[in-house]
């Protein structure tokens, strides 16, 4: 007998029992004259009702479970994984992927904000650097044009000062052009072997008038030796010029600027430009290679320059796939060092 038949039989039995009670009530049977008989009937009806409820719940529960088992078997036979551990694992992977996506998005947003801040700062600095010499030139020229001075000697002096402002504008534009070409890759490096010691000596000779004026000595360790390296001689000359010139600008009277060359491996050497000048505070070091960044605004502008010298140095060294470092202590001095490939 199946479950449906059992349930049907119980329902039929219950209906018969209820009809029996109704017939007795309607005929006013003497059965009810005895109170014990009445209590027995009521108890029997409640018990029968309780049995029917329990049986029905059991049968319905078994019926639902059988359908769930059938559904589970169907999924298993179809090859679809529904095991609890796999579902939990997939859920964890999904949550992790969503979290990773959120983290990556936050990083990208922060990078975009940093780039936008850098762009604004760069444009602001560029405008400031261009306006300073431009206003200087305008002031001198307008003074002459307005006839405020008559002396030829004063006019000549004003024109010379105007020329200095024009030269500074030209220097800024040329340096910007250099950085743009290096970044875009349009500046082709002509890699060849050359003597680094000889190049350093040429740079020292070019900057000798400035070093004498500042009373700063320029020295090259082991200047009589030969250090052959591979690189673009024109751009490496600019690196050395910018670094040595920078040390002279911010050096102290009677100080020194020394270049040391050290072999650090079979195919690499390290070039160190060391001075005992005023030095740089630690909080400024991470930004010294940024365009137009100045540790001391007043001191930097009084010394001249485009504010792009160290930025150009960094770009040239990186274009050679080399590295550049800076160390400095305020009041003691600074050291800029970069690597080059040895010519074997």
Brief overview:
Helix content is 63%, strand content 13%.
Folded structure, characterized:
It is a single chain. The protein is α+β, with helices and mostly antiparallel strands and 344 residues long. It folds into 3 domains: 3-78; 98-184, Helix Hairpins, CATH 1.10.287.130; 191-342, Heat Shock Protein 90, CATH 3.30.565.10. The chain contains 8 helices and 7 strands; from the N terminus they run ααααβαββαββααββ. The chain has helices at residues 3-26, 35-78, 84-145, 152-184, 196-214, 233-249, 297-303, 309-319, and strands at residues 191-195, 217-220, 228-232, 256-263, 268-275, 324-329, 333-342. Strands 1, 2, 3, 4, 5, 6 and 7 form a 7-stranded mixed sheet that branches. Strand 4 and strand 5 form a beta hairpin. Helix 1 runs antiparallel to helix 2 (35-78), helix 5 packs parallel to helix 6 and helix 6 runs antiparallel to helix 8. The longest helix is centred in the N-terminal third of the chain and has 62 residues, at 84-145.
